[in-house]
Give the backbone structure.
Amino acid sequence: MRVEEYLMPSADKRQLAAKRILPAKTTWQFILKRADNGCEWREDGQNCLLQENSIDPVGGGRVKLTPDHKQPHSIDPNADLRDPEQWQALCGRHQIIKKNYWNTMTGKLNVYAIIQSSTREEKLIAFKFLLDYFGYILQEDGQIERSTN
Ligand SMILES: [Zn+2]
């Protein structure tokens, strides 16, 4: 199953998600200034900071910053187009990451997509967490057993 199919199972929802609002022009200029013309995506305590028109070392291609409304529109349909705090500048790669990892229909993280795209090491951590949560343990020989306590 592809992520897009997982996020948007019906044509109705796709139409809803396609409605795109943008901040006022002066607000967007303010945001770019605040962002120092860099992507404001924050992960692991670090900002992406990719600059407009630079080359994305991970995704390739030229960086084009676009406005992202922090709250999903479905949750906050009355976005203030003049409040820069409600918006952030994101590079193309992080727009895609946010779209895939953040379900705009429910306003919740798309946990499935996050785990799917994470490293094997991170998947193993999540796997062990789930085993523990459901009362199982992974033995050193790879067997899964019900935990005794
Ligand atoms: Zn970025």
Summary: Residues 1-15 have pLDDT under 50 and may be disordered. Residues 21 and 78 are 10 Å apart (CA to CA). The pocket of zinc ion is lined by residues 39, 41, 48, 50, 90-91, 93-94 (CB under 6 Å). The longest helix spans residues 120-133.
